[in-house]
Amino acid sequence: MRFPYNYLTLVCLLSLPMAALTQNVGINDNSTSPDESAMLHIQSTGKGLLIPRMNTLQRSAISNAADGLLVFDINRGEFAYFDNFLDEWFFLSNGRQLIDKDQDTRVRVEFTADEDRIRFQTAGTEYWFMDGPALQNLNSGNSVFIGNGAGASEGLSLRSNTFIGQSAGQSTSSGSFNVFLGHEAGRDINGNDNTFLGQQSGIGHSSGSANVYIGRRTAFVQGSGSNNTYLGTFAASNKSGGSDNTIIGYDAGTNNGNGSGNIFLGSRAGAFESGSNKLYIHNSSSNTPLIFGDFSTSLLRINGQLDINNAYRLPSSDGSNGQVLLTNGSGAVSWGDARGTGLSDQDSDTRIEVEESNDVDEIRFYVQGQLEAYFDQYRLNMSSIRIGNNAGNDGND
Q1: Between the CA atoms of 140, 142, 148 and 152, what dihedral angle is there, to the nearest 10 degrees?
Q2: Rounded to whole angstroms, how far apart are CA atoms 268 and 249?
Q3: Helix, strand or coil for residue 362?
Q4: Which end of the chain has less neighbouring CB within 10 Å, N or C?
């Protein structure tokens, strides 16, 4: 039985779809069999696969997009696929940048050819880039903020602030040239030229300039003040105000209140001094420090012995009325009577004595070891009397 040619052709064409459903499909230019794991195997050394291309609006307008649907977004220059579960389009990175959905936050590894920089952009502005080992910031008014909440109120004006640590300089909105390093360091201050280093150092300050606080909780309570230098853990920690203070040492000057112009040196030095213009040098909270001073009255006090060049030490207590400091020539200095009992030459054989023994009220004159004369009240007593040049100089005496 013979069939018309057109009939046979129709039968072959109708059978093709059935065959395609029962085997893998390979598209190539060298008759290579398709891989068994692939439903569609495309192979070529000179051509590629062209996925549907469209702009962002066209892509977004696709209705009932199938899960995994793939297109190329020509506006973004990236492949996009649809996630049916999340009902959202996602993008495949082009290998040079990571980008968010609205394209204003991204990380780029090559903005221009062979640039070799990593750039960080948020909300449409590039703020950081990494060039070799250096991490540099941009568009921040010459300021650097690192830490959760650090510099949150600064406003990125040309202020040249550096805040590093959680909430460091968090409320600073008008200060310039400040350096705050540590958790909540300088959290609430508005001022200029301040340097706060340490956890919560200067946290209580709301205003003030040219302060240097170094140490945990230095100036923890102080609300205002300028030109202060505090160094040491808890130094001036409970101090409420004041300016022009220099406080160095653990817990030094901690309760100085609103005192100004003080210098406290040593662990807990001046811890309970509440006044101003005082000097304390000591290693305890004593109110009688080793060295005390009052700048307002130009007073300097030594609460101890004063050693001069390791040669002698001054007494630590006062002498009696009329006494003076005397030395024995061997480093011993003491209070003594200013009235001498005699005058003597080098070998002590010619001398004048005013008291040979206790309560002998005479003035005695010795020459070459011999008593020649003496005053006894109103009388001058002499063994012989010779008055005048060469008087009695006949050698017979």
Answers
A1: -60
A2: 6
A3: strand
A4: N
